[in-house]
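Weekly structure sync, notes
Attendees: PL (lead), two postdocs, one rotation student
Agenda item 3: pending single-chain targets
PL asked that the sequence for the first pending target be pasted directly into the notes so everyone works from the same version. It is reproduced below exactly as submitted, 789 residues in total.
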Amino acid sequence: MIAGTFRAASPRAFFGFVAGCALASVAGAVAAVTPAERGEAAVAAVDPFIGTGGEGHTFPGAVVPFGMVQLSPDTQLKTRKEGYGWAAGYRYDDRTIFGFSHTHFSGTGHSDLGDFLVMPTTGDVRLEPGDAAVPGSGYHSRFDHATEQAQPGYYAVTLDDYGVRAELTASARVGWHRYAFPEGKPAHVTLDLRPSMYDYPGKVSWARLRVRADGTITGMRETRGWAPGRQLYFALRFSQPLAGHALHNTEKDVPYKGFAPPAANAPELRAQIEGRQLVGVFDFASKGAPLVAKLAISPVDEDGAIANLDREAPGWDFDAVRTAARAQWAQALGVFEVAAPDATRKAFFTALYHTMMGPSLFMDADGRYRGPDNAVHAADGFTNYSTFSLWDTYRALHPLLTLIQPPQRTNDFVRSLLAARRHSAYGILPVWAFHGLETWCMIGYHAVPVIADAYMKGIRDYPLDEALAAMVASATYAPYGGLESYMKLGYVAIDREGEAASKTLEYAFDDWTIAQVARDMGKRDVARRFDERAGNWRHAFDAKTGFMRARKSDGRFREPFDPTASGYGTDYTEGNAWQYSWYVPHDVHGLIKALGGDGKLVAKLDAVFDAKVDPKLFEHMEDITGLIGWYAHGNEPSHHVAYLYDYAGQPWRTQERLKQIVDSQYHARPDGLAGNDDLGQMSAWYAFTTLGFYPVAPASNEYAIGRPFVERATLHLPNGKTFTVRASPLDDAHPYVGSVTLNGKPLATSALRHEDIVAGGELAFTMQAQPNKAWATSRDARPGRRIGL
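Predicted structure, written out during the meeting:
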């Protein structure tokens, strides 16, 4: 996700035109384009390498929108202690590839997955991956970025040590490989069930590897990583017959070579092996024709993986699958037409691409999936998803998806969350779940605002009473995260629970979203109860210091107090007082009053952005990156802060800060992300901000207006209508909003309603050189006023 520096030169319009088409100026007429042309132009603008360097933690490999398979190269096999930088398996600075595994996270600050690593080799067989610093020490290979190619749904690279051209593509449940081997050398494919992105090599609890009579290879592994007890199954087929194979358990060093006698209880098998450290090597004749491999995964069993393979990948046409994957991305990305400089278009569409990596499908083709109880269930009329990074994604990612994806996608997300709660031993919604299992990572009960935001926007194809009951159950489960003291005292007590200030603040926001839904459903008692709880943020506010702080059970603030202290052992989660004291998105005007008025809020915001901060202060906190003063754009608690000037009647200050953030935190290169993309949240922030508005308080149906960073963007809404944002003139010489119109009528407020967007129309900004200090300054013209905040 990147953004170029804006320039005064005449920009080019890219409204759906494929490469080579004539370009029209933004001011001129733009020829009508088909959805296919629009989609192709969007796909062509994406650069999957953005975020693969620095701390972006994205991967460049092949995936379809929200797909279960994320097939990508792994450039290091690291232990948990070393693995933070390789959370996605790939870092752009590396020059060695160890293989291509089938599951990856996009942009997380925690590592796991990396299932079923496949590596094509020639010559002598090596069972160990080896040391990247020592060529030839294992089956890894050197590579050069000059031979890499990455597009939505496709990745290719040349493995220099073997002369193998490797290509990858994917469907929802199947990863496709095509390998062009040099002629005249023994050709092998190594399938390693040992590596992962977490605690390699000690992560695997148990694994199984089988060669079936028809040449299909199947197996599974259970891992004890971030989500202990995770099970995943696979089925693998090759387009050429096996010339030979060898199955090894390297833990015992007992090789199983050749066609072993079939097991007594499985006469269809050529060979099988079980253990914790399994690797298989499969030999092929070098005939010159590329070898195609297709590997399906299943959360249920090997038969499910075979069925997924049969249904999704019946043939061997790699190019047809690649074309289909590209078409899916064209449809998903083609919801937008964007006129902007090249770097900004690349930034925007790459950000949009990254917002559709998760949540990811987690269900076999027959509707079966594995739940948090590690049991198999059957979906009843919905598509099951997992990989919910909710502490990150409830803020902007899920609100963005309600605009750019068909409502059924969000309905399925909600149904998946509700199903997970039904299968949970705790009776609450997921906190941070992947592959069906709970990790208990981060804080809050942020499945609640995801459901509330969907409900308030009219996306309601799920059991409504069950949804509200699930929200309330999650907010009242006393053993979780200090909720017992929160419900008793009105705050999380720091002498009973760590990071108590952050938890009090985030619980209060989640409670407010419950009240929103309950009020709309006519559940007045529930609404009153959670409206009252939504005010609990006041118990964390210290009027003496002006910061949010943690209290002890006796009501006193914890001493001593250091507003610069961050992380574990402090009052805060992944932040400090300077970063977390703004977290009252549902009651910003209440916060302004508590601080002493508009001027006090603005002065304290300026103190955040203008502070001189030594980055070494956060060396112990990997996630606090992208610093502008105390503002940390690389981590989520800061994401709404620049928009708060709007609430104090100074929208021009929001405009200034947004330009400062976009220009300094996003760059047109692999390390162009200031911090972890966190399953698309960083990218969703950029997408919204580029359009000129942002959902400060999800479930409010309101967006705070900032300033656009594109000349024109047209959103083709799921309901068939279009919503267009225009800005003129847009360059470095005109950074401020002079006036705004909505459907041709002056818009006097710095707030935009969700209903205004989905009704279709046009939001037009007139930009100017100097700030307009008269627009949207009155109290009634500020965000939050129209929703009673």
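Discussion points:
- The two ends are 33 Å apart (CA to CA).
- Confidence is low (pLDDT under 50) at residues 1-30, 256-261.
Action: rotation student to compare against the earlier draft before next sync.
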